[in-house]
């Protein structure tokens, strides 16, 4: 086996009201460096200890078992830039990395549809899995036997992420959500989501930002868990951001600003947010890749 590297981007799910459906691939990556070995070994990021039960390797074994394939012994070294449990899709990126590792080691020739279906089955929703696989901004949903997914091109915006030190597990942030929504409420919430997509398509970024900040599906129920939710949104707006939303389930927030303004807005925001990593992030356009 020739050594190879699997790289998977992070992602920001939801984009306001696109709950469990929209996601944007980001230029932060998890990498798996793989080489032949006489025994199996998985080294997690920053660890020198072999972890036989690692989250990613477990996914790889599940995929191999599903296809009845034996995996050749190899050494895997994980290197990751994606912070865990901050709303940047680390679990989905790790799942996609595990699926791709099985695909490469077992020469499974999985189609994109098979990878998306398997990843969504594990994660429970496709909004982070689809952009981690395909790159860019994806809109997808689960049907009984299919996961339709559309990719939007040419998002001409700069992105600024405000990543706090605290973690928030997605599972905990999902437990705060109502089980059901009343019909008129759900219709209004869906209308916001429709307008987010329409505004992105027509590059009407002021309208996009306005609708982004009018989510009714999840942010109203999660904002009390999120440090500085209103302050970040208001300050970014003052500095000219079109809009700011929770990234995934949070606690990271993500601002969308005019192309070319990202660094200036970032500098000012960073001064106000002690203890945060404030970053201008690129949009990843490739999704999972092998090199
Ligand atoms: N690279 C990784 N290695 C091991 N576990 C991971 C990795 N990435 C994610 N996880 C698991 O997923 C959890 C975070 O997932 P989640 O709560 O959905 O947050 P998010 O996906 O927004 O980062 C981590 O606490 C860990 O259990
Ligand atoms: N739609 C999900 C997205 C979770 O994204 P994550 O990056 O926080 O795992 C949700 O909002 O629960």
Task: Give the SSE map.
Blueprint: E1 4-13, E2 22-36, E3 41-43, H1 55-66, E4 74-80, H2 90-105, H3 112-123, H4 129-134, E5 137-140, E6 149-152, E7 157-163, H5 170-175, H6 183-201, H7 205-212, H8 219-222, H9 229-238, E8 243-246, E9 253-258, H10 262-272, E10 277-281, E11 289-290
Parallel strand pairs: 3-4
Antiparallel strand pairs: 1-2, 1-11, 2-4, 2-5, 5-6, 7-9, 7-10, 8-9
Protein name: Homoserine kinase
Function: Catalyzes the ATP-dependent phosphorylation of L-homoserine to L-homoserine phosphate.
Domain GHMP kinase N-terminal: 55-136
Summarize the structure.
This protein is α+β, with helices and mostly antiparallel strands. Helix content is about 35%, strand content about 25%.
Question: How would you characterize the overall build of this protein?
Answer:
ATP binds at residues 83-93. Residues 197-273 form the GHMP kinase C-terminal domain. This protein is of the alpha+beta class. It contains ten helices and eleven strands. The strands form two sheets. Strands 1, 2, 3, 4, 5, 6 and 11 form a seven-stranded mixed beta sheet that branches. Helix 1 crosses helix 2 and helix 6 (183-201) runs antiparallel to helix 7 (205-212). The mean pLDDT is 97. Bound molecules: adenosine-5'-diphosphate and ligand LJ64HWYM. Adenosine-5'-diphosphate is lined by residues 30, 55-56, 80, 84-91, 94, 169-170, 248.
């Amino acid at each position: 086996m020739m050594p190879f590297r699997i790289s998977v981007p992070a992602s920001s799910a939801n984009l306001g009201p696109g709950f469990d459906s929209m996601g944007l691939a980001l230029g932060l990556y998890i990498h798996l460096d793989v080489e032949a070995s006489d025994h199996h070994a998985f080294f997690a990021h920053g660890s020198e200890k072999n972890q036989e039960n690692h989250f990613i390797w477990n996914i790889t074994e599940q995929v191999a078992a599903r296809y009845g394939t034996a995996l050749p012994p190899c050494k895997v070294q994980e290197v990751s830039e994606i912070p865990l449990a901050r709303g940047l899709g680390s679990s989905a990126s790790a799942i996609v990395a595990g699926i791709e590792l099985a695909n490469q080691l077992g020469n499974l020739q999985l189609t994109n549809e098979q990878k998306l279906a398997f990843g969504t089955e594990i994660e429970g929703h496709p909004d982070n899995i689809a952009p981690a696989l395909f790159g860019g901004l994806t809109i997808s949903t689960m049907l009984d036997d299919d996961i339709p997914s559309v990719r939007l091109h040419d998002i001409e915006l700069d992105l600024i992420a405000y990543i706090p030190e605290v973690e928030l597990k997605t599972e905990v942030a999902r437990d705060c959500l109502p089980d059901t929504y009343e019909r008129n409420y759900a219709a209004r919430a869906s209308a916001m989501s429709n307008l987010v997509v329409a505004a992105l398509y027509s590059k009407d970024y002021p309208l996009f930002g306005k609708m982004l900040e009018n989510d009714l599906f999840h942010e109203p129920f999660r904002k009390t868990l999120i440090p500085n939710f209103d302050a970040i949104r208001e300050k970014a707006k003052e500095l000219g951001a079109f809009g700011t939303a929770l990234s995934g389930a949070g606690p990271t927030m993500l601002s969308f600003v005019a192309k070319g303004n990202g660094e200036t807005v970032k500098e000012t925001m960073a001064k106000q947010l002690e203890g945060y990593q404030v970053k201008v992030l690129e949009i990843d356009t490739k999704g999972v890749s092998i090199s």
